[in-house]
Design goal:
Elements lengths: L6 H7 L1 H5 L1 H19 L8 H12 L4 H11 L9 E8 L5 E8 L2 H14 L3 E2 L9 E10 L7 H10 L4 E5 L2 E6 L4 H10 L6 E8 L8 H16 L3 E6 L6
Antiparallel strand pairs: 1-2, 1-3, 2-8, 4-6, 4-7, 5-6
Helix pairs in contact: 3-4, 3-5
Length: 245
Amino acid sequence: MSGHSKWHNIQKTKGAQDAKRAQAFTKIAREMIVAVKEGGSADPANNSRLATIITKARAANMPNDNIKRTLEKAAGAGAGDSYESITYEGYGPSGVAVIVETMTDNRNRTASNIRHHFDKYGGNMGASGCVAWSFDQKGVLVIDNEDGDYEEDAVMEDALEAGAADFEAEESVFTVYTEPDDFNAVADELTKKGYSFVSAQVEMVPQNYTKLEKEEDRVNMQKMLDILEEDDDVQNVWHNWEDAE
């Protein structure tokens, strides 16, 4: 089965973003606007990247009215013209691999801020490609089963029939993995079968993990993740810290 950070642990590392729902919605809306600009259509049926982001938005409980308003704005002339996507890579304490995906209208500001966030907590920003080789891009759909409504075998069968590449059951969640290009189709099929997702997006999944033995390193790593998540220019942060809390 695929190696992936524990869902609940990921939730903890994303706490700063999750606690500020309005900020999270703003970031998703920005992704939608750029997806429309680059894909040339505000119709998810004709824009696969946009469809992926809408699935992510719904999993994040972004209201339909917000999604509709964002798409209307995105369809307007010039929307999203000033934003560009830039990915930064580097290392946290004790060599934890970190990928930071940003969307910015000022690359100098963003680069300076991201470098500062790395440096402040004992990490360092590296060259492009320095850690990306150790991650795989995968569609990741997380189904909550805290109430025990689903049988593992049935969910796995449904997921594989829908075209999933892999399936993982742990604690109270099921994680469905897809090839990036299959994400929308698998998400649609599982939605038709009545499943809803607590997280749904294309992620950078680490091939291996790093444990931090020192308490100081664990504290600094968490602070680094928190400050990165709080940065308005940051869309996603991926890392291979195994025991994130």
